[in-house]
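Field log, afternoon session.

UNIT: design team B
ACTIVITY: writing a sequence onto a fixed backbone
BACKBONE:
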């Protein structure tokens, strides 16, 4: 019987090790007001009881995640089979802990003060050789090396400053084999471009230069990316503004399934459906946007972030990372701000209207407006 029991345990362990389903985080409030976090599978079956503490950010557990002990707050990485790995190597920057992305998670060598990647099995995939490195986006990550520690407040005491950062050094783009795809010179040509790594085309015969940026890789290949800034401006002035001129029926499909509006003075966000939003606010849209031109001095267009506290319904879940943060690299947000100056020659701004758009699988959609 003991042998059968041991065999059953080993089989269960092997099945757990091969689990490829996604577990979802849940929380339980404990004495003192703190929370403990655990995980359930898609069917609601308990997989890990609520025992982890504050620095356990993964709302979705795929293969590997950073956790903290609920009592000691000791941090480590955890695999699906219950095995802890990477003890004392949890990556944290500005109080933010990393989440798995594309099968990799960042770790930190504290002795070297360098960052690398673990793979989904908890093994070192890319050594800790970089000062900083971004998560992988479509197999590419931006890595910094040769930099020096600095404080954001320009203090010289890097041991006690509140926010540490890096200055100097050189950036490169690497792939998941730790090969340099673009060097510092290529990135300098990219400048301030806001690239969509998920739009990558290699050696495309024809490209739309009005919305893309092309870089030459180290191996000589041409990598073409959509530039989010160019893309949004072309869409907003080329599609959304003409739709406002056309009428409510043309605007409604360009609204997201859930919108939030706010007035001044601010009394909270009112959430509504596209039909109700257009019916209530189209006259304002027409008055403010119908005659708008790209060179208008009263308009400011720029990237923004999705407020995950305001937009916390399931409709916005697909725009978040596994840590529950806005996945800006894949679903960027842009805000259009109209600034109206005070009357009587006063140069101060009297009022602002803001419209915010998020990039969805169907294109950009209006999801927020403040009047």
């Amino acid at each position: 019987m003991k042998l059968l029991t041991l065999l059953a345990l080993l089989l269960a362990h092997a099945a757990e090790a091969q689990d490829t389903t996604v577990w979802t985080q849940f929380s339980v409030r404990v004495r003192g007001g703190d929370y403990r976090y655990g995980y359930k599978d898609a069917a609601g079956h308990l997989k890990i009881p609520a025992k982890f503490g504050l620095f356990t950010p993964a709302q979705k557990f795929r293969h590997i995640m950073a956790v903290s002990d609920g009592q000691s707050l000791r941090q480590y990485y955890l695999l699906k089979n219950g095995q802890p790995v990477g003890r004392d190597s949890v990556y944290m920057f500005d109080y933010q802990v990393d989440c798995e992305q594309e099968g990799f998670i960042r770790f930190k060598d504290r002795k070297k003060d360098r960052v690398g990647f673990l793979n989904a099995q908890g093994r070192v995939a890319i050594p800790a050789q970089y000062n900083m490195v971004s998560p992988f986006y479509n197999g590419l990550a931006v890595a910094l090396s040769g930099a020096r520690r600095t404080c954001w407040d320009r203090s010289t005491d890097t041991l006690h400053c509140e926010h540490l950062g890096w200055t100097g050094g050189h950036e490169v783009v690497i792939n998941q084999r730790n090969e340099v795809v673009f060097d510092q010179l290529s990135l300098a040509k990219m400048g301030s471009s806001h690239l969509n790594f998920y739009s990558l085309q290699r050696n495309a015969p024809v490209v739309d230069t009005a919305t893309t940026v092309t870089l030459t890789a180290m191996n000589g290949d041409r990598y073409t990316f959509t530039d989010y800034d160019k893309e949004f401006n072309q869409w907003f002035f080329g599609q959304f503004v003409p739709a406002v001129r056309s009428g409510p029926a043309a605007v409604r499909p360009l609204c997201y399934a859930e919108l939030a509006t706010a007035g001044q003075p601010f009394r909270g966000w009112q959430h509504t459906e596209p039909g109700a939003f257009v019916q209530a606010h189209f006259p304002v849209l027409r008055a403010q946007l119908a005659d708008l031109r790209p060179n208008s001095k009263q308009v400011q267009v720029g990237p923004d972030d999705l407020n995950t506290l305001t937009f916390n319904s399931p409709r916005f879940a697909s725009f978040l990372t596994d840590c529950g943060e806005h996945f800006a690299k894949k679903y960027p947000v842009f805000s259009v701000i109209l600034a109206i100056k005070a009357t009587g020659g006063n140069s101060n701004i009297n009022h602002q209207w803001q419209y915010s758009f998020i990039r969805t699988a169907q294109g950009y959609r209006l999801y927020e407006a403040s009047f």
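LOG NOTE: Residues 138 and 198 are 6 Å apart (CA to CA).
NEXT ACTIVITY: expression trials, pending approval
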